[in-house]
Amino acid sequence: MTEDTPTEAMLEEFDDRESMLQHFLDENQEFLSWLGTSIDHVGDGTMTMSIPYDEKLTNTRPTAADDERADMHGGVAATLIDTVGGLCLRTAMDDPFGARIATINLNLNYLRPATGDLVATADVVRVGGSVGVSEIVVESTTPDGETHEVAIGQGAYRVFRGD
Fold first, then answer.
1. Cα–Cα distance between 21 and 153 in angstroms, integer?
2. Which of 3, 40, 89, 141 has the fewest Cβ atoms nearer than 10 Å?
3. Residue 121's closest CA among 98, 100, 95, 147?
4. In terms of Cα–Cα distance, which of 34, 46, 39 is closest to 90?
5. Between 154 and 144, whose confidence is greater?
């Protein structure tokens, strides 16, 4: 009989990886929880997270028409890029929770204003012995139903393994 790894033992308590990570986020990451961040999909080398549109997370343009919806603040997209970029690295590791991960570089480009929910998908470029890199695309769907890329980013993260 083999003993479960800590990750396998944690997974036994939950239906899937998404619900396990959502529980971790809700219980341990108050800022992300306050933003309404959700784990939408977890795959091997990829992850999708989202933050719902909320007036408290917006900037109103001084020239905006009265009926124009305010834009999500760019810092919310940057937070989402940083978070999903680092977390997705764990999906490519043998022991996803046996390491700590810290951002060492984050680059992002804003492509257009976001006036709806933010949905970010990260893909692992590489996870080495001490550094991991991911690429991230953030999309937003306008109130009239059009989905556009609103930001793209790349993150480099220091991986501190428990060895």
1. 22
2. 3
3. 147
4. 46
5. 154
